Amino acid sequence: MIRVEKLHRHFGGFRAVDGATLEIADGSITGLVGPNGAGKTTLFNVIAGALPPTSGRVMMDGEDVTGLPPHALFHKGLLRTFQIAHEFSSMTCRENLMMVPPAQSGETLWNAWFGRARIREEEDALRRKADEVLDFLTISHLRDERAGNLSGGQKKLLELGRTMMVDAKIVFLDEVGAGVNRTLLNTIGDAILRLNAERGYTFCMIEHDMDFIGRLCDPVIVMAEGKVLAEGTIEQIKSDERVIEAYLGTGLKNKESA
């Protein structure tokens, strides 16, 4: 699905991503973990087109998509969410979802004047699809609530729902669990697993909650200092001395050895 080859992203002399090579398999839920400053979000930004790489390549289904802008990748089925949800706060949850599909008939002046019947039919279909998505995510009771009034976890669910309004192939989730209570986090996890199993979504997710990563992800990729440090199952990652050192530091490791 996605292959990243010797990717670099430098900011002056700082190498935020420093030669990372990794693969995200079709149909997988891949975890991306590492200490703060490891380069995880910068890697996401380069893959998703928000930042150009300094060098290296990003391949999607065998096609070189390096440096394509986010809207071009969106049309290819590559979507991402953010650490802080980007909702239209004054619009309802249903309206937020209905805004997502591109090239809607009502966006042109000609159709606004002469294609009103088609616009109504399209909006009715979008409304039904949005309601189906809200039902799937178990937040149908919030369909008419303004998105700005939602809790942090509910906003994350709504953002996940936006990926369901188009034909997503792969979704990059950036700290979907940040600031979310355990109950809602379980709901988000259930939704991700169902989307993967029932609709064939491929996911790659940055997350610091290792229990959440362990429940959902296989494989897990560890980054440190802009490089890929290790890859494997959650059990392999937790027992890898390089990973322990990257997270806890050599001081603790040496102290335990003594």
UniProtKB/TrEMBL annotation:
<dbReference type="Pfam" id="PF12399">
    <property type="entry name" value="BCA_ABC_TP_C"/>
</dbReference>
<dbReference type="InterPro" id="IPR017871">
    <property type="entry name" value="ABC_transporter-like_CS"/>
</dbReference>
<dbReference type="InterPro" id="IPR027417">
    <property type="entry name" value="P-loop_NTPase"/>
</dbReference>
<feature type="domain" description="ABC transporter">
    <location>
        <begin position="2"/>
        <end position="250"/>
    </location>
</feature>
<dbReference type="InterPro" id="IPR003593">
    <property type="entry name" value="AAA+_ATPase"/>
</dbReference>
<dbReference type="InterPro" id="IPR032823">
    <property type="entry name" value="BCA_ABC_TP_C"/>
</dbReference>
<keyword id="KW-0067">ATP-binding</keyword>
<keyword id="KW-0378">Hydrolase</keyword>
<dbReference type="InterPro" id="IPR003439">
    <property type="entry name" value="ABC_transporter-like_ATP-bd"/>
</dbReference>
<dbReference type="GO" id="GO:0005524">
    <property type="term" value="F:ATP binding"/>
</dbReference>
<keyword id="KW-0813">Transport</keyword>
<keyword id="KW-0547">Nucleotide-binding</keyword>
<dbReference type="InterPro" id="IPR051120">
    <property type="entry name" value="ABC_AA/LPS_Transport"/>
</dbReference>
<protein>
    <submittedName>
        <fullName>Lipopolysaccharide export system ATP-binding protein LptB</fullName>
        <ecNumber>3.6.3.-</ecNumber>
    </submittedName>
</protein>
<dbReference type="GO" id="GO:0005886">
    <property type="term" value="C:plasma membrane"/>
</dbReference>
<dbReference type="Pfam" id="PF00005">
    <property type="entry name" value="ABC_tran"/>
</dbReference>
<dbReference type="GO" id="GO:0016887">
    <property type="term" value="F:ATP hydrolysis activity"/>
</dbReference>
